[in-house]
Structure formats: structure tokens, C-alpha cells
Amino acid sequence: MERNVVYIAVFAALIAVLGLLPKFTLISGIPITAQSLGIMLCGTILGAKRGALAVLLFLALVALGLPLLAGGRGGLGVFTTPWAGFLFGFPVAAFVAGLVMEYTQNLTVGILATISAIIGGVVVLYAIAIPYYMVGANISLWEATLTMAPFMPGDLIKTVLAGLITRGLYESRPNAVLSRM
Amino acid sequence: MLSISLPGQSWAHGMRVGIKMGFLALTSIVLFWVNAWLALLVTLLGVVALYTSVEGAVRKGLWLMKPMLWIVGIIWVFHAFRGEYLAGSVVCLRLLVLVGLANFVTLTSRLTDMIDLFLWLLSPLEKAGLRTGAIGLALGLVMRFTPVLIERVGQLTQSWRARGGKGASWRLILPLFITVIDDADRVAEALRARGGIQ
């Protein structure tokens, strides 16, 4: 019980810290903030339920007024923008990524974590964020997809990083990867 | 940990958080049905007036709004391409009012009051088996952990640069996670030693 609560809290803090990291450029021209990487890692490391709870805790603190979103933003206002579909999609993304991890134990951790991150952190997340933006901004599905397209290559790179980091953690602290228990 | 809210004693700070939140929720619902650009423009001017009535709110509010201005601009351009200038303006005005009001509530509410309201809203769920005590503890833990982790990233970046690495690298994330997991295990142990979470 204590360990679960502390892990959930610590991962909520990790999402925040990853968002505050300076943007780093992997391939020239694609700047990446690591916040959505944090969401993926919540799912791939903590598993479905705890991962989603960590994300919800993070979002609660953002809503209460802490400047934890990338760029030091936060407060209630961020939940009323048409981009808020990402925020509402975050806990679902972590949950789905965790589910895939928990139900596919026969693959190596690194590859499985990347696949989970793609399904949860990209497919499911955009399946929520794009229609939300479409309705909020009153534009067509195609236009909404076009607006979000520049972020997708970066997100795909993050799924590879999620795989590498989850594998690294599984090798050094196997007990911490709760999705493999 | 620093909150976004403004320090101060204005009339808006004095208002109870629950009332402000209720007002915000109500306005958001009403705004959803308003499609007249003039009404929205007047409301936006009203929001601007709210900001000017609180010291320092205009500056901080504009900073919070900055990414939003880009979003609104892009949305308007999309509409303009289709010749729907008016529809685009209505959507953009409504967004500016909504985000502006929500940010105003955040700017004029103390973090502790917001947390109290949040836990109060959750309290009915306690009967359904939700452990609100654990949630309150977790909120505190995140606020305590975040500055520690920011410092940890700083230390890792320095070690990385001392060994010839440049800038910030994704390679620092794994060591960050490992040290943080070790900390978490110790904190959990300490909590259990002191009687655990009720």
C-alpha cells in the first residue's frame, strides 16, 4: 500500500520534471518536450491502474494551480483550450499502455514497452486529442489531423525512448517495473 | 513549491474558492450556447475588466495566455481559408473568454484553498471505498518530490557535462528514474515504519 502510493506520487512528479526539462533535439529540427514520454513511462513501468492514477494525480495538481505542464504552464485554463484533449487523453493513454504491458508477458521488455507506448501513448492519445480539437476548434477531422501532424514524428521517437528506458529500469531495478509483476 | 496564483488581498482573493469555481462552471456552460459575436466580445471585455481590477493579474494573465494566442490564431486562419470569418471569430472569442476566466480563478485562489476544495469534492467518494487520506498524502508527496527531482536533474546534467556530454540528453532519464525509484522505496519504508497510510 505505502509503496504503491509513493510510486504513484513519484511518477506524477517525474511527469512534471520531464516536462520542465529543456527541450532537447534528437534529429535536427524536431524539438521534443519529454512530458508525453513521462505519460508513456507511467503506463509501461507502473502498469494500467497505477500508471493512470499517477497521471490523474499529476493532472489534479495542474488543475489546482501548480505550473507543472511543459513550459511552466498550469491552472484551470489549460483544461478549457481545444488542446485539452491531450490532457484528458493522458490517463487513458497510460492505462492502455499499461494494459498492453500486463497482458503481453511473453515479449522482451524493451520491444513490448515500445509497442505499448505506440498503442497507448500515440494511437489512443491521438484518437482522443484529434476529435476533441476538431469539436473545440470547429474544424474538419482532416484539418485537425493536419494541425497535429508535426508532433507525431517526435512522439514516435519517444516510444522508442520509452522502450529503452523501461528495459534499462527492468535490468537495473526489476522490482520497480510493476507492470511485469 | 511555487503556485501560479498571485499573492495579494484583492476582492477576488477574498471570495471563496467554491463560489468562484461554481461561477466558472456555470459561465462555461452558458457560453457554450452563446453564438452571437457581439455578446462574446462584450463578455471578453468584461473578463479584461476583471483582470485590470487585480494588481499584477494583467501581466501574469497575458503570460499564461501566450500559447493560447497561437492556438486561437491558427484556428481563425483555418476558418478564414473557408471564408467563415464570423464563425471563426465566434469560436476564438469564446475560447479566449473561457480560458481567461479559468486562469483568473487560478490566479486569485490560494493553492491550499484549492486543495481543500478538491479533497472536499472527493469526500463523498470515501463511502464508495476511495481512500482520500492516501490522496491527500500523495498530493503532498508530489509537491515535495518535484523540487528534489529538478535538483537531481541538475546534478545529473553536471556529471554528464563534466564527462564531455553536451546539453541535455535523453540518456539522463534512466539514471534519474533509477535514483528516484530508490528514493521512493526508502520513503515507502519510512512511512510503513511510522504506522503506514491509514
Structural account:
- The complex is a heterodimer of chains A (181) and B (198).
- Chain A has 181 residues and is mostly helical.
- In chain A, 70% of the residues lie in helices and 2% in strands.
- Chain A contains seven helices and two strands, in the order αββαααααα.
- Chain A has a two-stranded antiparallel sheet with strand order 1-2.
- In chain A, a hairpin with a 5-residue loop joins β1 and β2 (31-32).
- In chain A, α3 (48-64) runs antiparallel to α4 (84-103) and α4 packs antiparallel against α5.
- Chain A starts with a helix and ends in a 9-residue tail after the last helix.
- Chain B contains eight helices and no strands.
- In chain B, α2 packs antiparallel against α5.
- Chain B starts with 10 loop residues before the first helix and ends in a 5-residue tail after the last helix.
- In chain B, 29% of the residues are buried.
- The mean pLDDT of chain B is 89.
- The interface between A and B is large, with 59 and 68 residues.
